[in-house]
Amino acid sequence: MKKFVKFSYDDENYKLEIYCYILKVGEIEELIKGLEEKNFKLTFIDSDNIRGELELAEYSKIVEIRKQLEEEGFAWSEEKAGFSLKEGRS
């Protein structure tokens, strides 16, 4: 399972937090590589779980990365994110 956990803003940066669990054999290495390429800070890794966060000042870049992750199977309920991720925000 690949989940978005939280999306927040602290007056300077946007933060996107993810959690992946019950990962298949070999999937964890692929996810680590992909998340690191997107500049995620991985805060927890074990045999079938990953937790990480991405902090950026640019809203449009966070939205772009979120869309890429959705294409890779990440999902969440936007109303639980704190506020909706819409393309129109600057």
Automatic annotation (TrEMBL):
<protein>
    <submittedName>
        <fullName>Uncharacterized protein</fullName>
    </submittedName>
</protein>
